[in-house]
Amino acid sequence: MTIEDQIEQAMIEMFARTHAHFGKAVKGHWYYDNEACPGCGRKVSPMQHKGSDALSLNAYIYRKRGILIGYILCGRCATEIHRAAKRNPGVQIARHDIIETTLGNAYEAHMNKMDA
After folding, report:
1. CA 66 – CA 88 distance, rounded (Å)
2. Half-sphere exposure of 14 (CA within 13 A, CB side)
3. How far apart are alpha carbons 104 and 65 in whole angstroms?
4. 53 and 46 in contact (C-beta within 8 Å)?
5. pTM score over 0.85
6. DSSP summary character for residue 43
């Protein structure tokens, strides 16, 4: 199974769980496949997790369109968010705002291409 297949399978599972929890508020899913990290613009890279390289697959509900957007962060942004979550669980940091703006803009650009 390729990494793309694994990501797609994970997105389907995340969408199913999210849809079960939020119902019709979440209508579909989309994967942000840009090589640039949505948090800082650097190239997406693995982070260290328990002594091994790991990718941080995350999802954000873009409420404007009801879409679950999946994305991968660079190691630096993923580590920053994980450390902040340990200090203050459930509290968003400024990096989240940047990520959400980047993903919303990317999804709107994607939809504009689809409409053209």
Report:
1. 27
2. 20
3. 9
4. yes
5. yes
6. B
Alpha-helical regions (H) of 34-74:
none
What are the beta bridge partners of residue 57? 72
The Cα–Cα gap between 61 and 27 comes to 10
* Whole-number pLDDT of residue 52: 84
Q: In the predicted model, is pLDDT for residue 43 greater than 80? A: yes
State the virtual CA torsion across 22, 94, 97, 51 in degrees, nearest 10.
Answer: -70
Under 8 Å between Cβ of 37 and 74? yes
Residue 96: closest CA among 15, 39, 16: 39
pLDDT value at position 2?
83
Q: pLDDT per residue over 67-112, tens digit each?
A: 999 999 998 898 899 899 999 999 999 999 999 999 999 999 999 9
Pairwise CA distance, residues 84 & 52, whole Å: 21
Q: Give percent of the chain with pLDDT exceeding 90.
A: 73
